[in-house]
Amino acid sequence: GAPRVHITFPQQLAGAQGGRPELASLMVMDSSFNPPTRAHMHLLTSSMQRFGASKALLLLAKQNADKAVVGASLVQRLQMMELLAAADDTGRTCCGLTGHALFVDKAAALQALCAPGARVHMLVGFDTWIRITDPKYYGEGQMLSVLSGLFTSVDVVVASRDPAAASNMPALSVAEQEAAVLSLPPAVARGRLHFVETDAEVAQLSSSAVREALRA
Q1: Which of 3.40.50.620, 1.10.443.10, 3.90.1170.20, 3.20.20.140 would CATH assign to domain 6-215?
Q2: CA 112: distance to chain centroid?
Q3: How far is 213 from 126, CA to CA, in rounded Å?
Q4: This prediction's pTM
Q5: 129 near 138, Cβ under 8 Å?
Q6: What is the domain partition of the chain in residue ranges?
Q7: Could you tell me which residue ranges the Cytidyltransferase-like domain spans (predicted)?
């Protein structure tokens, strides 16, 4: 079927689907939200200001391309996301759910959700960006052409990861992360790939840090 993002919050947006004029300038945080934290909202609001987005969307995928759902259930994550969005008293934050696991499919679904010609920024962490640019998710030799198509429809904002944070990725400094992101050929990125440094104190409020603290 057609690519779908289902808005779950707020209720007045949850009814009608497709081509919403109020979503003409959207900052989308694509994350596993396990759990959602203040770090998510801080990064989201600072990115909205930086890129001039008028609405924010916390987007949860029902399935991940290569990570099983562990920790909080999808329902629990969505409930926590909605609490986080409801705490934004500006009313600019929505929550949504998608069945698409692959990033390029999510981007297509977001385009279908928004008004024609909407400016959509997709905000992802550095670890997610590494997966997006892994050739194994694409047909033989097709990655750059698929990504080139992606950048015709959306901007991608990659947020740095705390170099000291636990991760199954190699430890890279923020400068090394930025160089890795911006190494994508300019003809592919079309000036629509951006790197932002996550505030160091806020980075310590990451989901993995919260899970670690709960285990301690």
Answers
A1: 3.40.50.620
A2: 17
A3: 22
A4: 0.89
A5: no
A6: 6-215
A7: 30-212
